[in-house]
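Recap slide: Outer membrane protein beta-barrel domain-containing protein, sequence and predicted structure.
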Amino acid sequence: MKSSVSILFSVVTLLSGTYALAQSSLEGFSTGRYEIHKSSKSAKSSRKPSSVEGEESKPVTDADGMKVRLLTPSELAAEKAAEAKVAAEIQAKKLAEQKTAEKKVVEDKAVADKKIIEDQKASEVTVAAADVEEPSISEQAESLFSSQSEKVYDYYRQEIHPDDIRNNKVEVEFSPLLGYNDSSSNYSFRKYQNFFEALKLKANVWLTPLIGVSGQILFSFGGDIDDANHSKVSAKYENLDLGFNFRKFFGVSRKSNSLEFSVLYSDNNFKVSKDSTMHPRIKSSGVGVGLKGRFPTSMSYAWTVGGTFFPRLQHSESATAVNVSSGSTDENTRIGFDVGGEWKFSRHSQMIWSLGVTSEKNLFTGSATLPDSSTGLIPSGVSVTNTMYLMNLGYRWGH
């Protein structure tokens, strides 16, 4: 009985302790220390990053209001940012192109202004050059007898190239040549043909660049003509030409064309052997004029074209083994023409060539002194046409 009471007491004590423990535990929960808080969806969503707040897909429409695709706000913002970046790049490109165009306008204006200034300077130089004119031939002629010669040469020193031939004061030519002479007449004593070789020497002295004097000698060698009984007799030419020359250059360049006018005195002699029984010696002399054009095609070559005219010559015949006269001279004229060229190495050195022809006409009045050997009659009104063809290649030295 006693043990039963002990067991019961132990059970009661255990139950009371358990109750006290449970009550103390409940007190802890009532204070909130061990309260379990339930989170709602809104609370959870409030803890999410702000960048995804309200992340809902929104429709994107085209210009007609038709839905094209769905984009979230972040995607839409990224797309707008990309579009803004592209727009900024386009704007920057337009600004760069505008600056380039403005820079080009400024550069073009600078080039145009520079060209205007250069043109103005060139026109000023042209006007200045026009003010300084080349001394005329009359002024240069006056300078020969005054102290103005240095002024003339000052102009050429300033205006023409040092290698221009106008700087030469002396020129000397040496030219071997071949010639053919055909004398046709109605009187056998004045009829002959002759092929010959000759040498020509010529000198020009320029008193000023436009005024000068010249002298030329031509003499042949090794020539002969037919004489009586099919024999041959020696024949040679001795020609002298003196000139007073004036020239005009059309510009100051070394390639400027020029014309040279000459007043000439000519003395031509045809000398046959004293033993000739068929031909007299003849001589023609007189005053004439000459004109020569020089036309450079480059710095190293120039064409030349010229001619001479002697309107009235003094013509005479001299006796050989036969004393013959064709009559009294009435009219004697000569005309010549030549074409050639110059290879210019420098103003000091040129190679020259030319082809020329001269024709002299002699008319006589009255009767000849001896009968014609072919007809046996004494002719009257004898006419002679003496034509000479010359080809030469030579050298000119100038200083």
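Confidence is low (pLDDT under 50) at residues 28-53.
The longest helix spans residues 73-131.
(End of recap.)
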